[in-house]
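Long-time lurker, first post.

We've been arguing in lab meeting about whether zinc ion would sit comfortably in this protein at all. Half the group thinks yes, half thinks no, and nobody has a model to point at. So I'm putting the question to the forum: if I give you the sequence and the SMILES, can you give me back a predicted structure of the complex? Inputs are below. Any interpretation is welcome too.
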Amino acid sequence: MTRIIAEVVLVLALLGAGFFGWTQHKSVGSSTEQVTELESKAKAAEEKLAATAEELTKVQAEAKEQAEAAAPLKGKAQELDAVKMAFSSGEILKDLDANYSKQKGLSTERQLGLAAVRLLTLGSKDPSTIAAFRKTLELTDWKGKSKAICAAQNALAAAGEKVSVLSECEGISAVKEAPAKAGGDEHGKGDAKDAHAAPHWDYEGPMGPENWGKEFPTCAKGKSQSPLDIKGPFEKVKVSIATEYKNGPLRILNNGHTIQVNVEPGSKLRIDGVAFDLLQFHFHKPSEELMDGKPAAMVIHFVHKNAAGQLAVVGVLLKEGNENPGIKTLWANLPAKEGPEVMPENVSFNPNNLLPREMDFFSYEGSLTTPPCTEKVKFFILKSQVNIAREQVGAFPFKKNARPVQPLNERVIQSN
Ligand SMILES: [Zn+2]
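Top reply:
Settle the argument with this. Predicted structure of the protein with zinc ion, as C-alpha cells:
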C-alpha cells in the first residue's frame, strides 16, 4: 500500500514540480530578470502549490504530456487530500527515502519526484530539496527530457538558486519576452529596491557577502566556511590526488555570477583512489583563496562529487604571465551576458589543459563559496600556479566575483 501511495505521489509530485516551475515562470520577463522575479514570487507560489487539488487538475490540462502520465490516476483524485496530509507529516518522504536508498540509480523522473516531494514536505529552501533538484539536472540526459529538466530548473530558480533555464523550457512555461529594463545590469538589480525582494545575492552592495547570511544562514553561522587565507602552520598529510580528465564537447554558460563550463560524465578526480566525478569548473576574479594574505589574479574551481554525494573542489590559482591557450579557447566561446548553457559547434575541450604539471596541494574542509554556502566540501588548492595573460584577466566578463576569506576556526590547513 505504501508503495502504491508512493507511486501516486510521485506522479502528483511531478505535476507539482512542473506546476511550481510553471507558476513561477509564467509571468516572467526577459531572461536577465527572470531569476529576481522568480525569487520574489517564490513564497507566494509555494503556498499556491500546496493550496488546492483544483490547481493540480488545471496543470493536467496545461501540460499535456504530464496529464497523460497522470491519466491512470484520475480515479484517485480523492486521495489527494490524504496525500497532502502525508506530505506535511513527512511520512511520504520517509517512505520514499527508504525505498529509493535501496536502489542503485534513480531514473530522472524518480529523482525529480523525490525532489518534488522534498519541496512539498520541506519547502523550496531546504538544502536537501535543492540538492535533489540539482541531482535531477545531473542525471538528465540533456535531450528529450526537457519536461523534467524544465520542472527542476524552474523550481530551483524559484528557490533562489542560480540556474540557467533552457530555451526549450519557454514553450512549457509560456514565457513572453518583455523589453529589458533600461539601466538594468546582468543581475537584474533594477528590482533590488523591491522591499520584498527574495533570496538573491551578489558580490557587492546590499546583497553582498556580508549579508548572504540573512537569506542563507549557513553563510553566516557555518564554522567551516570557504575561502581561506592559506598560511602555516600546516599539518602534513599523506593523501594522493590524481585527475583523469577527458576531452569532450564544450558546454559553457554565464550564470550571472561566473563563467562555468559543464563537463560531460567521464572525467574524474581520485582522492586516495576514490573516484569523484568532475561536474563543472568555473572562475573567480581575483582568486578567492589568499596565499599568505595575497590573492592570485584568478582561480579556477573544479567541482567534483563522489557516489556518496560528497563534494571536492580542486582550486588552480592563475597568476599573470604568458597567455593561457586553454583559457583562450574558453574566452572565445563564452556568453558575455547571463543566459543558458551554449554548446558551440565543433569546439571540444579538455579540462586537463588548465592544470599545472604538479598536483601538490594545500587542503581543508570548507564550504561552497556561494550561497547557500553548504559545508563538508573538501578543498585542494594546488601549490603550482598556472599562467594567464593580463589581457585575459581583463577579458573575463566579471569585474570581481570573489567571496572574502572566512575564519579558520578549529580547522588546520593540511599540506601534502
Ligand atoms: Zn568557486
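For your lab meeting: Residues 282, 284, 301, 369 surround zinc ion (CB under 6 Å). The mean pLDDT is 76. Whichever side wins, do check it experimentally.
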